Amino acid sequence: MILKKDKHERVSIVDGQLVKVACVGGGAGKMEVERLTPGGLPLLLSGFKGVAWAAGAGSGVIKAWLMLLISLTLGISSPVSAYRFMGYKWPRAEATFYYDIVDTKGNARSLSGTSWNEAFREAMDRWTNRTGFVFDAIDGISLDPCQEDQRNTVAFRRTDCGFEFGSTTLAVTYGFSSRGTLSETDIVFNGNELWDVYDGPLGLFFNDFTRVAVHELGHAIGLDHEDDVTSIMSSFAGDLSFPQHDDIEGVLTLYEGEIDAPNPCDSASAPLPLNIRLENRLTASDCRRAEIIATTPGRNDASLVDLYELNMPVSGLLVIRMQSEVLDSYLEVRDESGETIIAYDDDSGAGVNAFLTVRLEKGRYRVVANTAFSWAEEGGYTLEALLRFEGEAPVKLNDDKSVTIEMVEYGGRYYRATLIPFAPSTGPKGMYWRLGSATLRSPQPAIPIPGALVAPDSLDLIFNPIPALGRRYDVILQRYYDPDFPQAWIWRLKSAIPRS
User: Fold this and answer.
1) pLDDT at position 274, please?
2) I need a surface site. Which of 12, 87, 160, 174 has the fewest CB within 10 A?
């Protein structure tokens, strides 16, 4: 998967001198610190290279630069909260943007047909609906984002306010502040890049305008980059497109006493992206199970829930797992309205973790992350929804009916494996395979997309999917015990359903 790199660059005043801090790369990326004298002469600081920099107007000018990224794996153990602040905020939890957005070719609409104005309005709503910070919009008014005029705006430009964009810069957010109080913020999108408006995973060629706008608006609120937990303010652009739990907590903390968080039961907290490991927490501020749209008989309790929106781009077999070191995980999949429970699981994962497989038609659904107890159990968890829906499946059915699996997940590790046709001496009729070989992949993949996985408790083998006879099938092989071969790993075909 190709993702985008996010580079953050800040200009501020420290002891009367300009300081430029550039954080390049992710995780173990290098840090460059450059101190500049008022006359623009470079100084050397602790062995770092100093470079001249021309300051912009304003008493405190802050740039947040969103840039290209190569790859990302989410799977972090994090503190309860890790949000970071830029060092400024609005006098009240509200800001108004004036805009009439056209791209550098004069188009008011994206290739998908959504207008840039609509997409930016949607980005603002994603913050307002989830945090209570109010973004107001006055569209139809075109302003210059490079002009300090005490009005907030957004626009596409060929240059970064007269300077050349970096080769990988997507957008720049300018903030004008005095003594930590914002008076204006403007967003400049790089009009030399390819842009569209779309949902789902981040595209390879076109950048999604809405999710970049959500990130930049986070800076406009006063949030800095955050890489320790799952966050839309991460230094890495990826499949996330909504503010996450940590982002929401950050806004509520920054504007504590000034805003009330919206009722978490009114809407799902965020979309559940496919093939990404999300990290979240159940906290006392979350919705209670008794408050959600539909309840299960006997489960009208005070336990905490996180609600997610799930979009199935194709009909297929979905694997969802919820893991926690402190919670007794419980999962539900509901229809789009939330009124009908389609599938649920408590302890099919290792220990008290939830592991759920369900075949769903193309469409929208709700996912409920909950606990098995009736009281308000708090704690962190990870959540994954796995569905391979494009590209070649790393599984091959050979002419001799053996199966080659380039990557199979078992116990959190990844193997190359082969399955060989097997004929049991007893047992029900059907198609059987036994494990022929399994070799640990070395090195372990940084961004694993397994062709199959072994269910933690049942040890069923789940293919997601497998190509055969010119089609793609979601296949489940059920673990089978043969008394004549008690040490062998053997499976029997349980189901094979073609993808539509």
Assistant:
1) 82
2) 87
CATH assignment of 270-386, given 2.60.120.380, 3.30.2290.10, 3.20.10.10, 3.40.50.2300?
2.60.120.380
| Lowest-confidence pick of 32-46, 185-199, 294-308, 346-360 | 32-46
pLDDT at residue 19, rounded to an integer: 24
As a whole number of angstroms, the distance between CA 138 and CA 129 comes to 18
The two tokens of residue 119 are 């997409």
Cβ 136 vs Cβ 123: under 8 Å:
no
Residue with tokens 């008014």: 141
Q: What is the pLDDT of residues 37-53, one digit of tens each?
A: 223 222 222 222 221 11
SS (H, E, C) the chain: CCCEECCEEEEEEECCEEEEEEECCCCCCCEEEEEECCCCCECCECCECCCCCCCCCCCCEEEEEEECCCCCCCCCCCCCCCCCECCCECCCCEEEEEECCCCCCCCCECCCCCEHHHHHHHHHHHHHHHHCCEEEEEECCCCCCCCCCCCEEEEEECCECCECCCCCEEEEEEEEEECCEEEEEEEEEECCCCEECCCCCCCCCCEEHHHHHHHHHHHHHCECCCCCCCCCCCCEECCCCCCCHHHHHHHHHHCCCCCCCCCCCCCCCEECCCCCCEEEEECCCCEEHHHCCCCCCCCCCCCEEEEEEEEECCCEEEEEEEECCCCCEEEEEEECCCCCEEEEECCCCCCCCEEEEEEECCEEEEEEEEECCCCCCCEEEEEEEECCCCCCCCEEECCCCCEEEEEEEECCEEEEEEEEEECCCCCCCCCEEEEEEEEECCCCCCCCCCCEEECCCCCCEEEEEEEECCEEEEEEEEEECCCCCCCCCEEEEEEEEECC
Question: What pTM did the predictor assign?
Answer: 0.59
Q: Are strands 432-440 and 490-498 parallel, antiparallel or unpaired?
A: antiparallel
Same topology, domains 4-254 and 270-386? Answer is: no
Q: What tens digit of pLDDT does each residue of 96-142 get?
A: 999 999 999 999 999 999 999 999 999 999 999 888 899 999 989 99
78 pLDDT above the threshold of 50:
no
Of the listed ranges 35-39, 121-125, 267-271, 274-278, the least confidently predicted one is: 35-39
- Each domain of the chain, given as residue ranges in start order, spans 4-254, 270-386, 395-498
| Closest by Cα among 216, 136, 142, 150 to 183 | 150
Q: How much is the pLDDT for 391?
A: 54
- Largest Cα separation within the chain, whole Å, is 88
